[in-house]
Structures are given as C-alpha cells and as structure tokens.
Here is the input.
Amino acid sequence: MNTAAYSGFSLSIKDADQIWDFYEKERQEALPRVPEEIEVLKRSALILAVTAWETFLEDKVHEKFYPRLNQAMVPKDISRVFNTVANRWLDQEKSKLHRTLETWTGSGWKEHLRTHFDKAITALNTPDSQNCAHLFKTYLDIDLTNHWKWRGYNHETASKRLDEVISTRGLVTHVARKASLSPKKHILSRKDLESYLLFIKELAHATDKIFAPALDLRSE
Here is the structure.
C-alpha cells in the first residue's frame, strides 16, 4: 500500500509525463526539422520531475518524523536528531544560556526539534544524494545505503545518477537562449530526459518501499 507522500508524487510526476508527451507529439509532427522552440518542453518536464521528487522527500520525511517525535518520551528515544539540534543550539546560544536553557525543560525540547526540522525542510531546494542521506539519517535514523537498491542500481550508482539529474536540472533552469549564436548541442537530450523520468519514478518507489509493512510469511 502506497503512503500519502508517494500518492502525491504519483500525481505530480504525471505533469512531467504529460509535457514529455507534448514534446514527442510536436517533435513527430515537425520531423525532419525539429524547431528549437519546443526544447522548452523538455526542460520543463525535467524541472517538474525534480520538483515532484523534492516534494515527495519533504512530504515523506514530514510524514514519518512527526509521529516519531510525538511518540518519543525522552530525548534518548530520538537521540540522533536531539544531539544534532542541541549541539547546534548550544553553539549559537552560549552567551545567554542562563536565560534560555529552561526552554529545553519538560517537553520544551520537542519544540526545539520541531523548529529545527521545519527550517531544514523549508531550506531543502537541492534534493541530491547528500541532502537525502542527511535528512533520512538525522530525522528518521535510516541509512539509505541499505535501501537504494533495485534492478540495475545499487546505492552508489543511484546516488551518482540522482546527482546527475539534479545537476542537469540546475543547468536547464538557468539556460539562456541566444538567437544570435549558432545552434549548439542541447543540454538535455531526448534519451537522457526519458531515462531521467524513469529513474526518478524508480527512486521514489524504492524510497517509499522503506516504509512498507513487512509481510508476515509465517504459517498459521
């Protein structure tokens, strides 16, 4: 059963698929001379696909972190993120500890963790392998090296591919068309875009599977 975050991703990625379909339709009708103007469709499809992945990450970590935080009775129950936030807070508040330390007493420590988490999620705009690993390890205590594995990919190759996709997204986002210059090779080829769209879908699926309930195969 898919999670809410993955269901949202499945809807969002359809926008990228639809733009890809528009591009292919326009390209086929224009052959053999494909107009430069329709290249914007390829770039738009990639930007929307990465946005769908970024939103999925935000929703997924949010979906799983808050219940984990709410269920924690003491900081030890969620020690990794507690230590991360506490150490950063201590570095910033040294000069006024006598006035602010009490905000950590009782259940106040949970509010500090919520605030830190919300800021981290809001600041996420580069959903590459390093940021993904940090989010899942810090807030969910999950090591993605054990999960980003599916046919044709292991964690290393999946991370490398994701970083390539994110880098290309950055390039096409800032591309400037200059009519006065002679045409150059496009930053994003048809083949690459098609493979990127498939990869993002597979990566989201593999990430969502981390939270799939284990099947009980024991005999009755």
Remarks:
- The chain has one domain: 4-32+39-209.
- Residues 4-32+39-209 form one domain.
- Residues 178-183, 215-220 have pLDDT under 50 and may be disordered.
